[in-house]
Amino acid sequence: MNQNQGKFIALLWLLVLAASCILFLKQANVVTDMTSLMPGATSATDKLMLQQLRQGPASRMLIIGIASGNPEQLAEFSTALIEHLRSSDRFVYVNNGGEEASDRDRAFVMSNRYLLSPADSSRTFSVAALKAKMQQQLQVLASPLGALTRSDFIRDPTGEALQLLQLWSSGLQQPEKQHGVWFSVDGKRALMIAESKAAAFDLDRQETVLATIQMKFDSIKGKSKATLIVTGPPVFAVDARRTIRKEVMWLTAISSLLVLAFLLFVYRSPVLVLIAGIPLLSGIIIAALFVNTVFGQIHGITLAFGITIIGVAVDYPIHLFTHRTSGESARATMRRIWPTMLLAVVTTAVGYSAMVLSGFAGLAQLGVFAIVGLLTAALTTYSILPIFMNYSRAHVPIYGGVIGFMALMRPLKWLPLLLIIVSSITLFFMQEQLWENDIANLNPASTSLKNNDKLLRKELNVADVSKMLIIEAGSLQSVLQKSERLVAGLDKLVADKVMDGYDHAARYLPSEQRQQQRQQALPSARELRTTMYHALQGSLFRQSGFSQFIREVHASKTQALITLKDLDSTSMGLRLRSLLFQQDKHWVSLIPLHGNIKTDQLQAWVTTMSDPGLRFLDLKNASNRIINHYRDEALWYVVMGAMVILLLLLLRFRSIVTVTRILLPIVAAELTVVVVLLLLGFKLSVFHLVGLLLVMGIGLDYSLFFNREHNDVSEGHRTTQSLIVCSVTTILVFGVLAFSQTPVLSTIGLTASIGSLLCLLLSATMVKKSWGYAPPFS
Amino acid sequence: MMKKNFVAVFVVVNFFVAYAHAVEESTWGLQALMSQMAQVETSRAKFVEVKHDPLLKRPLYLKGVLKYQAPDYLRKETHKPFYNQFAVQGNSLTITREGVKPRTIRMQKYPSLWAFVEAFRATLQGDLKNLQRFYTVNFQGTERHWTLKLAPLNRRMKKTVRQIRITGRAAQIKSIEIIGTHNDRSMMTLVAQ
User: Which of A134, A251, A648, B140 has a CA-to-CA distance to A752 between 20 and 30 Å?
Assistant: First the structure.
């Protein structure tokens, strides 16, 4: 191809890049929802769990605390803020324990007490029971509580409403109250909860909601020093997005600058460094466009990860620059090193394909991004870059340190084998502490956010329920009925101390069938009048005082049944909706279990029930199990990938000795990195696996180059220098990544930077004598 | 002549003594009452309580003992016609009934109950500030016979109690009357022990 054709192609490519860039920016759909990184659910239980994580009321709940003021002031602010939030129409539900909410609850329970009460009517309304109640109530009337309980007592002498309120609050502990609103026990914080209308993953709306709360609070607090704390899943999500966004910018900027500076230092030619950017940009833009097109979206973490491509892809132009001898055309150099480079790219791509095949949506994206990016960068280096290089006559000198370095490493050829043995033994003994099994540690939120959350949750007694029973049925009523049928069995489990307690939806919303049964069991007005007459014989109470009671019992016999909607107006509404909801075409009810639960006995009980609609779910275990399952799968794919690479190398070199020389340093580096990570106190997660994959790709690149066939000493020097430069840029990029606040990125960064250094050192020990490294001479 | 002067002096002195006494009595007020109450470490009294209520066929008579111990312990023990005990210490109220396990509740959870208890306890403590948090306080009378009229501020309590009237002599409470909003009334008379 002649000069003009070359120029044409180069220009064309730049135009293609620009167009792709614009296209991407226009239709890019960047998401930062952390739950989209989670693997797709297969079993119905897992689906349920994920659905709860993404959309359930618990995922939309905000806990708000107001601090730094005297309790009266804080209570005032609490009341004012609650009013503002209520009227802002952004919340499904807000509660600060203020009298109003519980007034509503009391009114609701009072007007529906006979439908809600689980008591046995025949016993409650018997003469004996009423007589006993009247005796008791006489004492209450005579006591300091008398005046306060009087009006409720006239309507409800058997005390159904009071018992119901106690029953309801037994499922949910009420926090401390001061000045009529919820407070932490030490009185330092006024507390409230608010359920946001916006879905948990709708981060824009969540951000608006949080801004609204802050704004309303600022308008209330005036000049006082009061502070606002807001916590909850939406806060974490918004914070995660902010962090990721910031990081994508920062990390890209810093990495690019460092790499730029370093390359300038090595090549002393701004033009050359600029040209090196072309394959990198090509790789990133094409990869981003590809991912966005194929997946329909691109995750913020994938973009941030794109930076790592710079670290690896920059190796290709570096090889090209450094291997060019004086007077040689760029194209000729390219032809010389291409076979090795191609093999390196292909083997790396095979390594990344393990990520693509894993069930993790997030990792699959990363894998695709990496493969497309690297292939594009390599191909660009091969075809386009030499054209640009004609504009630079720069010649790269060989630095003396290079030779010294090689002379140092060569005698250490026993090192890889030694490291393999030592690491294997260490890992064998440390295998218990190897894996990270708690996904909570992958939460990217800052420590202060996490601590605030823990504190406020404890003060509000918002149960952190992780063990529950799941009931499924075709309709709302059938699910409630099923729930009611289980009560006897569950109460027995509590009595047998298999668990301390439980909560279930039918406690707040009895099935229609149950409500009707209760209605029928109620005495008629005439029956009740007679019963009261007999019960009040010899009592100080006048029968005329209880006419309202008799009227209300009579009315309850024909009153409208309670529906799910009715309960929305009470504080139990929130609780109920987290216990009872629709999924796909059927209804699900959760029964959270409290206290120390003997899981084996519980599971046994569930099994004896032999009902496919009844299951036991341990949320923490379940989510950990999913992650671990996919991690094991990913591990399996990695091993398979390694096999394929082994095969490729054998096919190419047809010599076990050569292949061993190539692979030994890599294996040693990988094992050593793992040991180093463990010693640093880390536990391996699936993201560490990603880092190890990267190391494998990088290591192959170095190892293959160090094993090139040639007998030319100076070529050997050029290769060595090239690899050192590659290694430094890689370490720079991943080193920067290691400082990320997102655990995903920082673990990959740390693993890859340590790994690439080890790869360089260990591959260097395997270099052949034919490379002519005699003791250093000046 | 001597006799007339002596009578004159006698009358004048008596007049001054009476005047001084009257002045002393008229300046004795709410503050004085509270500070005298505050000085009482412990007190115990037998009570007779009569409850009038339209719900009842006839008034209910109760007999028992009321005990106070500074700084914040107050106990009402009813002996007749049935036994029960209401004891407050700090923020907790413990209710003991015959045949039933004693029950303790935190008064912060029941603001109207708390207000009710403080009507008596704050008075016995001589803590005017605390009393005024829950009631508007009206003082009438003299050291020999005073009346405190308390009108509740708490919204829920207002619905059930209209006024609490406490009468006494110096630092001794003689009677406590609770006037409810539904034609119900309770009058407790105390005899110190």
Answer: A648
